[in-house]
Design goal:
Elements lengths: L1 E9 L20 E9 L7 E10 L4 H5 L19 E9 L9 E5 L5 E5 L7 E2 L16 H13 L12 E4 L5 H12 L5 E6 L2 H8 L5 E5 L5 H9 L5 E6 L3 H7 L3 E9 L17 H6 L3 E4 L9 H13 L9 E5 L8 H6 L9 E5 L6
Parallel strand pairs: 8-9, 8-11, 9-10, 11-12, 12-13, 14-15
Antiparallel strand pairs: 1-2, 3-4, 3-6, 3-15, 4-5, 5-7
Helix pairs in contact: 2-3, 2-8
């Protein structure tokens, strides 16, 4: 079998921490679209040929592409495909774990077709297509919800008991993929007395508040944001746990409302992904005076517990504790629109999505 693949590759290595160049087909563009012929006869042992169906858009990809911390990611070399998680269909296989026709999720990259090695860093596993829509495996049954699951059950060490019910939660980036899932788990599983959800703009505030009447949305774009947030949380020393997805000035301000000896879960720092100055945490004094436990997390530190997590997430869906219908924003990059893949991903940083931002690459889920 021969397929003609479209692949986005790295054209010019960016400087870690600085914005990428999205002027496609220019000399200094970060990305370049190429066509490449792939032949199933060239498969080596443990490799599979995959047709991409959906791509996951994640802020962390910026660091997979260019990072100053080689302990986190090796980065992408010039000419290599741009890394991304996604869902694909196996077209040919020299791997006993995957047969032709199987659907897989893993690092399929910004490609229409790709040959993938079954090695740990590619995080390949077969998915069950009988349970809901295919794209669910990038949202409510994907990395988004897995991250949220481990936030509560491993890092916050919460159990479904009375002592963990009735808490006040504060969540930044609340209209995003992880944030919106955390709202629902806090409300529907751990029966939070109040969830203060920080989002950008009236439409996103309305979105986060749609999850329940105990959610108070606060618009960080509002000129009176600080006053509105202080009112929403109820004053100093009121927040039982803070889940932070944005970093920057919002992180600096929000820790002021944490109760002493409570936890701040650092999931992301999207506000600083194109501005290194915003990576600086300026309110370190509050960590000391409040004796806060600040914990950074990476999803794949928990790889061995994924099966357990998936079982619990399926249970949440069956109990209507997670909303599957409004869990994602899906953008088309079909056929000639494949040229828009980088711009769709870049939309994360201007907030075009409610819930998970997913790119559709194939017109068929079969």
């Amino acid at each position: 079998m021969i397929v003609n693949a479209k692949q986005w590759v790295l054209n010019k290595e960016p400087t870690p921490g600085l914005p990428f160049n999205f002027e496609i087909n220019t000399q200094n563009s970060t990305f370049k679209l190429i066509r490449k012929e792939l032949n199933s006869d060239d498969l080596k042992d443990n490799q599979i040929l995959v047709e991409t169906k959906y791509l996951s858009n994640d802020p962390a990809q910026k660091f997979w592409i260019a990072t100053a911390d080689k302990a986190y990611a090796a980065g992408v070399k010039k000419g290599d495909p741009i890394q991304a998680r996604g869902i694909g269909k196996v077209l040919a296989s020299k791997n006993e774990k995957f047969k032709v026709g199987d659907f897989i999720t893993g690092r399929v990259c910004w490609t229409t077709h790709i040959i993938i090695d079954d090695i740990p860093k590619n995080e390949l596993y077969k998915i069950d297509t009988s349970n809901g829509e295919l794209w669910w495996h990038l949202s409510v049954l994907g990395g988004t919800s897995l991250t949220s699951y481990f936030i509560f059950y491993r890092y916050l060490k919460m159990k479904e008991t009375e002592e963990n019910y009735g808490k006040v939660a504060l969540i930044s980036g609340a209209a995003g993929a992880v944030g919106s899932t955390c709202i629902q788990i806090a409300l529907n599983v751990f029966k939070a007395s109040k969830v203060v959800a920080i989002a950008g703009g009236p439409e996103k505030v309305k979105y986060v508040e749609s999850f329940g009447d105990k959610v108070i949305g606060v618009d960080y774009k509002d000129p009176n944001f600080k006053e509105n947030l202080a009112k929403a949380v109820g004053g100093a020393n009121t927040v039982d746990y803070f889940i932070d997805n944005v970093g920057g000035d919002i992180l600096d301000y929000c820790v002021n409302f944490s109760k002493p000896n409570t936890k701040v879960i650092a999931v992301g720092s999207i506000s600083g992904y194109n501005d290194p100055e915003k990576f600086a945490f300026k309110n370190y004094g509050a960590v000391i005076t409040k004796r806060l436990n600040v914990r950074g997390i990476l999803l794949y530190d928990n790889y061995e517990q994924f099966s357990q997590a998936f079982a619990k997430l399926n249970e949440m869906i069956s109990k209507n504790q997670l909303n599957v219908e409004d869990s994602a924003t899906i953008c088309d990059a079909l056929n000639e629109k494949f040229v828009s893949v980088p711009d769709i991903w870049n939309g994360l940083f201007s907030g075009i999505n409610k819930g998970k931002l997913i790119t559709r690459v194939s017109s068929s889920d079969s």
